[in-house]
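[audit] Reproducing an earlier prediction to check determinism. Same input, same settings, fresh worker. If the tokens differ from the archived copy the diff job will pick it up downstream; this log only records the rerun itself.
[audit] input (802 residues):
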Amino acid sequence: MGTGGGRWSLRYFRHLFVFYFAIQEINQNLEILPNITLGFHITDSCTDAGFSLCGTLMILTGILNPVPGFSCHQQGQLAGLIGSFSSVTSHAIARVTGIYRYPQISYGSMDVLFNDRVDFPFFYRTVPQDQSQYQGLIQLLDLFRWTWVGILTSDDDSDQKGSEELKREIIRSGGCVAFLERIQFSYDFKVEQYSKFKKITDMIDKSLAKVIILYSTNSYMVIQFCMPWWKMNADKVWIISAASSSLANIDFPSSATASACSTFNGSLAFAIPKGKIPGFKDFLYKLHPASFPDLSFLRPLWRSAFFCELSNGSEPSRLRSCTGEENLSNLASRLFDVNNFQFTYSLYTAVYALAHALHNMYTAKSQHGGNLKLEFQPWQLNQYIKEVHFKTPDGDEIFFDEKGNVPAHYDIINWYLFPNGSFSSRSIGKFNLSASSGQQLFVNQSAILWNPYYTETPHSVCSESCVPGYRKVLQRQKPVCCFDCIPCSEREFSNTTDAENCMKCPDDQWPNERKDECIPRVVVFLAYEEPLGAALASIAILFSIITDVILAIFITYKDSPVVKANNRDLSYSLLISLMLSFLCSLVFIGRPGRVTCLLRQVAFGIIFTIAVSSVLAKTITVVIAFNATKPSSKLRKWAGTRISISLILLCCLAQIVICIAWLLISPPFPDYDIKSEPGKMILQCNEGSTIAFYSVIGYIGFLALLSFIVAFLARKLPDTFNEAQFISFSMLVFCSVWVSFIPAYLSTKGKYMVAVEIFAILASSSGLLGCIFFPKCYIILLRPDLNTREHLIGKQYSKKPK
């Protein structure tokens, strides 16, 4: 086996020790590769592609000065390579090992370019590929309702592609990206970069986005923001991608260095899980140089930790004096710092995955009588790595998918700065992409320590959410997260936050005052209980009583000249029809029903036809009576009550025919008017056929106009009790009322339309009653001296034309 290391820091020594521990554990396990001992060859990549290529060729050839194409391994056979940690070095290694078809299992390379199985058919990794955290990032944004975020990344090509893809995923999920800025990565500060940094920091400070995603596959990206030129406000929450979440893995030499990274205080980060490695702690605490056959890779650690040099063949006393039990214990404690255990577990898993693949191939060869020395071609192991499936001591299932990736799951950690300036982190949640939908993300929100700038969960939106009762209207040339909140229109409502459209209420409901729900409409009709209905009903009853009193007077004084002068039968008919006219207006008041809707207009039409035809008959009777007194007049045979009754019946018959046709073809029915008054549902009678309704009104108007014309022509006939003048006035009032009724009726809605018709009925009926019968009642009751035949005859002759 071979592995690529890294810088001589505690983190990379931890990787070396866990690698060594895993090899030892496998060799001591009788169930995995029995009778076969795993060896290893370690080279340092120095996080550089050139060094990685040199180290890889040394491992492949087995000699210090490699010759490509030659293998000089004196013992054993190379099975595969473990590493490297970074994507850059892993890419360089994969290009070489792919030529020789050696499998490579990386424990830290998260770059998505390795998903390409055409270019990297022998590449595997025990860390999630970088894109697998996109859904976790998006679900985290959704959890806190952060819809307006910024993204910072490096100028690396892979980071730029990944950040663009992350931006598209955020937008696809309904969020928005306020900005996406690329920062030139550099270990050394250059003066010419200051203006660029200043421009970016000013833009971040001024942005409404309170959440910034730091996305990069470079684990040293975070250190850039701990430099003095990155001076930003504290009102930002940072979300760090998994490959960049290395702040907790950096061994700060002092608390002052850690406090320089206060920008990240209270931030959240995705991190590679820190699994448990049974026995590793005891291994570290028993660590001693004498335990290792080759001390070359321990010398830098000992030089840094204990300021002493190690050499092969050192005397035991020299080793003890160089280290000391207390110093070794302190070193083991630092190496076993759980907070810095990221990627250590994935390295441990990578070694075990390769060992399981070798064991499965060894078992398959044994069953088929193969060579127990386990000699094989490099490409043969590839198939067995694809079929690896086992559980780690921590309970995680390890297997590789078709792209060489293990199941993706992350720890979500919270970074916080202690008052003494030291930085630390703790796990506050998990993200498991393999879990069922809705259960992938878990965050213990109560455990989060936000930046002290915030007293509650931070808020990051371009526009505040539209409360129920409003709808979103996008702002021109801005992302969908920037919008205005517009109140729902009069007949619409919205009951959700950030509604894109308002909904219409059902016909029988209306939005409440806040327009966030529908409430039943108020059913409105002209009721007896309301003042208008009560007033109209009282007036109708009062005038019907007055009509009854006048009828009683006429019956009492039926033999008086005033009553007999103009056909008392027609007077009775007119008074009865007027009384019914007043009473029929009561049918228009109250809750409309099927029966009342059928009766009200028909009853009104027929009763008014009787009244108007009675007036017409009276007028014609007056004309016939005076013309029949002339010598040799042919109208004498028409004088009498038969002509007047026939005329009334004939006029009523025509109206009855119209009403029957109306009821048969399109009768009136109860209906609701939901358009006239907001929030109300007017219960009224739909006339059914508008033509039939206006035909009834028009026919009555025709009879009234005919009566007015005849009465107007007969107004100067000599007679003390001649009704022609009174009929003219009554018909003038009647026609005026109904002519003004039509525009008034058409311009009103709901119950006021009914009130207009009732008023027209009462006004026209009272006009007939007052103009025709009040003068006669005055004579009958107050001037009996005028109610004599002598007065009638005398008046006749005095006004007889010469």
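[audit] rerun output stored. Observation attached for the diff report: The mean pLDDT is 81.
[audit] end
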